[in-house]
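Entry 14. Ran structure prediction on the chain below.
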Amino acid sequence: MEEMKKKNETGMNDKEILYSQSIKAGKRIYYLDVKRSRKEDLFIAITESKKIVTGEGADSQVNFEKHKIFLYREDFDKFVRGLQQAMAYIDAVDSEGLPSAENEASPLPTEPEIKIDIEF
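Output, structure tokens:
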């Protein structure tokens, strides 16, 4: 606990945002923040913020529901590949219709299966 206080007092706050980008999409805003961990590693914090209005008129209240994920450098390539595959699947389904039960295979190739051949 004291170590965190010392870091905060010296300006080494692990919550410091080095770069930020916001993406407005209807009632949602996505924030992409580059931060530095306590171990000095850079990572991306992705935050989805959704505006929630309850009540009507003068009694209405506005709240924001937030969800976060943290994406570390060693996972960037896998995350981007997975996101691209998911988006391509949605595009394929939208253009061709929903896949039938007879054709359960994904219309997109997935990562190749790893095969190990061991000889003794």
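Residues 8 and 113 are 47 Å apart (CA to CA). Will compare against last week's run tomorrow.
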